Structures are given as structure tokens and as C-alpha cells.
Amino acid sequence: MSLLCVRVKKAKLQGPPDKFNTYVTLKVQNVKSTTVAVRGDQPCWEQDFMFEISRLDLGLIVEVWNKGLIWDTLVGTVWIALKAIHQSDEEGPGEWSTLEAEVVMKHDEICGTKNPTPHKILLDTRFELPFDIPEEEARYWTRKLEQINSLGDDEYSFQEEVQKKPLPSAASQCYMDGKIT
């Protein structure tokens, strides 16, 4: 289980400032979180969100919405592959992403976005290690995440890693005929 940390920082929206009263939704693994609505063409949210991630083959969907009197309208969306997000224990400066008008679907799942809009959003995304794991395990996972991060665009196969060096097995706690096996 990985801990995804997202800080929704700010946006640059094209159009008259009085036209916008925007909020951001984050969607990952059937969980949805939303920022407060902020007025203007350069909204600043500076809101933090955390998600427990069990599948790294999915993506984070970021949507910027403009509040309306009757219904809200989509300003733009961006899809960020979870595999592209690096591990860090510290907040960074973030990265600007261009909001796009449409999502790309593959096998009933969102796998990207297309048709850029003139709008941009600044997000800081990173994976952190959970706080409640033993220190030795934290060091192990930090090394693994650093290895994965250093690979860049190369594919990393956890299956191959497991086949090369299996994880140590825990001591057996089974009792059989009064003996520990």
C-alpha cells in the first residue's frame, strides 16, 4: 500500500477573472476529493490530499470545475499516471500541467487526456512512506522506490525483481504435535 500525497496549489485560467469560481476534484481508485471554490482567473487553493494506493497501473484524474448557478461546467482535466509520480518525503515546488478538454478511454478506464485548453494547474504529487511501518521496512521501501525513480522511463518489473531475490520468509508460528515447525 502506497501513500499518494497531492497538493493542489494554483491555476492560471484564460478569461475574465469575474467569470471563474473554480474548484478541483481529484479522483483515484474510486475515491474522490474536492477543494473549496475560489474566485478569479488565478485561483490559489494550497490544499493537501492523501490517498492510499494499491494499484500503480492506474492514474490520478484531476478536474477543474467552474461553479454555476444551475450546474457546474468542466474547465479542463488532466490524467497523471501513478507510475510517473516519484517518491519523496518533502513537498516540492510542483509541476504545471495543461488542462485538456477530453479524456481518453481504454477498456472502460481513463488512460489519458487530449485536446489542450489554454488553462494550466500547478500540482505537487509524490508518494510518501506510511508512518506506521517499522524502520527497517521503511529503509527497504525507500531503497526500492529510489531504484524505481532512478529508472526514469524504463519499465520496472516487480515480478522480475521477486524472481531474482525472493523476500525473506517470516519464521513459522505453526504448532504440530506440540512442536514449533
TrEMBL record:
Coiled coil: none annotated. One of its GO terms (molecular function) is calmodulin binding. GO terms for biological process: dense core granule priming; presynaptic dense core vesicle exocytosis; synaptic transmission, glutamatergic; synaptic vesicle docking; synaptic vesicle priming. PROSITE patterns: C2. InterPro entries: C2_dom, C2_domain_sf, Unc-13. It comes from the Eukaryota. GO terms for cellular component: neuromuscular junction; presynaptic active zone cytoplasmic component; presynaptic membrane; synaptic vesicle membrane; terminal bouton. Residues 1-97 form the C2 domain. Pfam families: C2. This is C2 domain-containing protein. It comes from Accipiter nisus (Eurasian sparrowhawk).
